[in-house]
Input
Amino acid sequence: MTIQTAQRDRTRMDINLLDRASPDNAALHSTAMSRIEIITIGDELIDGRLVDTNAGELSARLTDLGFRATEHRSVGDDMGGMIEALRTAADRADAILVSGGLGPTGDDLTAVAAAAAFGLEIERSTEALEHTRRFFTERGREMPPNNEKQADLPAGSTVLPNPEGTAVGFRLDAGSCRLYFMPGVPRELRRMAEESVLPDLKDRLAATPPMVATIKLFGKGESEVAHLLDGIESGVPDGTDLIVQYRATFPEIHVRLVVESRDRSAAAAVLDDLVEDARQRLGHHVFAVGGPRLDTDYPAFAATTLADAGMTLAAAEIASAGSVAKMLGSSDPGRRCLRGSLVAADLGVLRDQLRPAGVSAEAVAEAVRLRFGSSIGVATFGSAEATGDDRPGTLTVAATGPGGTRSRELYFPIDHDRFQRLAAYAALRLAVGISRI
Output
């Protein structure tokens, strides 16, 4: 049995698995999963003018099909860098997905770089040239001469059709590695991948999809969650690999348990046991459990819980600045249960309800509940900045309903946006608790 713990590096947009538990990376995948790498090309990706979404989309589709991208790499419009990247990847990968650099301008060098990397001549493809000419003709436009360059491909390439643009893609083999070259325009890449690249990849390589469970929780930090899950691998049998992946999406923590085994029924049983063990360890902080594509966030969970209980909610939002209403308003269950929300400037309408009780968070939560006639009222007090005697990051939340009143005082010295988000989450959590009394 091999275990690897992985964490998402939150300073990057791509997926980056960091080995925390096993120094023996060579032994990581006893199931002999195919190695597939992704290379994205363009100066705009390197200097920050454009965020690379292509690599993420391709990785997600590979995962859906039972493959895994083992590395992402971005390279500028530099011939030497492109040649080195292609050769290095081809030496170790079974397949490489490449995007970008197939346009008609002088900085589009991918086809030439691919030919140079693998000792091939550049030849003009009649099929590719006809495609480009037809693309312009069908739109009643004359093709500029420089678009002919898009038909110059490495010798022996197989053309990949591009119904969305002027640049065809192409496929070539370098030893045991197959390389797929696609345009960088996302809509063009997406269709080419679905219609030409991924079907060929599935025919060529054996997919070995792992069994994956996603666990989402709120109320614990990433290090606390990792500590609580320490030793969870103890029940994993030999011949089965476990990868534990962590992702912090403030203020939620997402854990993925990835089990790989040649025996899928055995892997499914192991995963079920691991999920139950994790739920026991993490307790009431878990709000959603599902497969590899679990979209539920805590506000959606709270909205569904309240709506299913027949509860409605109103909010007085000083610290959360309308975030409770915005979060609930993004789902049908949330819209059904939300009766109203007041931000700081609107709290004057509560003056009649507040006169006897003062302006504590508990009193304001009850006042807003009465004002809108809701089952539950919540209030968020505090600011990311210092206010009065309170230090920056002081947060008080309260919820009141038929079952009573609950309140919490928290301290999080963080930026405004995250403070408002946390305040809304904390208020919704108290509302869920009140709904269950």
Summary: The longest helix spans residues 416-435. The mean pLDDT is 89. The chain has three domains: 1-32+208-294, 34-204, 298-435. The chain is about 35% helix and 25% strand.
